[in-house]
Design a protein that fits this description.
This protein has 257 residues and is an alpha/beta fold. It has one domain: Rossmann fold (3-Layer(aba) Sandwich). 45% of the residues lie in helices and 15% in strands. It has a 7-stranded parallel β-sheet, with helices on both faces. α1 packs across α8 and α4 packs parallel to α5. Bound molecules: NADP nicotinamide-adenine-dinucleotide phosphate.
Amino acid sequence: MSDLKGKSAIITGSSRGIGKAIAIALAREGINLTLAARSEGPLNQTADEIRKTHKVEVLAVRTDVTKLADLENLYNKTKKKYGKLDILINNAGVSSQSPFEKQPIEDFERLAHTNYLGYVRLIRLVINDMIANKSGAIINMVSGSTLCDPLPRNFIVYSSLKVGLRAFCKGLFWEMRDHGIKVTSILPGVTDTDLTGKLKEITGDTSRLMTTKAIEDAIIFALNVPANVCPLEISVINQQTPWTKPVIPFKQAHPDK
Ligand SMILES: NC(=O)c1ccc[n+]([C@@H]2O[C@H](COP(=O)([O-])OP(=O)(O)OC[C@H]3O[C@@H](n4cnc5c(N)ncnc54)[C@H](OP(=O)(O)O)[C@@H]3O)[C@@H](O)[C@H]2O)c1
């Protein structure tokens, strides 16, 4: 029997894509779930699917991670149902690819509030209870794009926020170590989800895309390491092609080529 059985987890952005795949993987381990996303239809559908196929509790809480009141509600409802939170998986994210000079100005706030502030705020809301419990695991969905320097063309606002998130998580890892809390960043390569479906250039050749399998496995690995160990970062990157090339069609030579 898995040690994870009966634990509780919040997974943001779990109505579809990587978050949904993680939710199913955690349910397989017997972990009770709180699922969060903005659109109630797909969120409830995912919750129902998991309830039908796994013997775990599933709470669906409509949440916009850009809104502090929604994050407070998400955590309060989880605590009320499960008593305490063992695992936080910060995964909700949006994308915006564009040459910088053409990128809609309103995209910046949406990206910053979803992909950076949403993560930091939710961690701040749960962290004091985890410190009091002297345990907890916080896993954050960063991005393989943070491994590129310079950042991938047409992707610099998204990627620079993920760089900031990655740096924050690394700092948090050291601050939380003495409290018995584990902090892990996952750096996925280009994965077959709605988020990448918008990238017309790569969906023509789907063999280049990863499925969610390696990400699910990385998370289960991170949650199963011995108590005195914590994977700080796990990169799961596409093997078939260099990371950036399928995402960003280079119109000119990359500066370091
Ligand atoms: N796919 C990739 O290649 C890839 C690579 C590296 C990193 N990532 C990261 O992995 C994470 C998941 O991406 P994905 O590919 O699974 O994307 P996806 O298929 O588009 O799913 C995104 C999920 O986040 C939710 N979401 C978006 N904005 C939200 C908000 N403001 N509040 C609450 N939930 C919100 C969506 O539901 P609603 O729209 O209903 O809210 C959905 O459940 C993101 O952080 C992304 O940056 C993805």
